[in-house]
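Hi R.,

Here's the chain you asked about this morning:
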Amino acid sequence: MSSPPSLSIIVPTPDGDGLPRLFDSLRPQLEARDEVLVVADTHSGPLPEVREAVLEEGFRWLEYDAGYHAWGHPQVNHGIEYARGDYLVFIDDDDVFAPDALASIRQVAGSLAEPRPLMFRFYLERRGCVLWAEQRLVCGAIGGHEFVTPNDPQRLGRWTDRYEGDFDFIESTLTLWPPESLVWREEIISYAR
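And the predicted structure, written out as tokens:
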């Protein structure tokens, strides 16, 4: 890639409670070509005050009602359809980015001869540990917080409607890439509750 890639950060939210903390971690890292897509789970009702806060930040607001609450996975799938960045980055509304997360993503993605999926690391606060521990695709040991993928509709899986739906997305996305495409990185890019 000749210039640093643009990033689409996709954030599902059921109620917007954690967004201010997330936005504080995100705001100083954004570059002009990046976009933030906040996708509200409107199954529980509209979120007008959250919508206004998101729009005041200059971020994109999308709504999606799957007809049930599914950990934000249908909302992520909906956000992917609207994403325009070169790479897709995923984070839950109650998590935060490490201070140099987006710069790390841009540096690694920009150094590649061709776009490839990336697996960074994240700190899981409730367990007090960094994941992944081993460079292996294991359900429960990796998650959407650390997976960054090129925005190539022909090479994107789907988030499923189960708790481990982010793992399903990672696994199904990687089946669409040549073996050994995944780039493993040691940098921590997010802190998950």
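Residues 101-111 form the longest helix (11 residues).

Let me know if you need anything else.
M.
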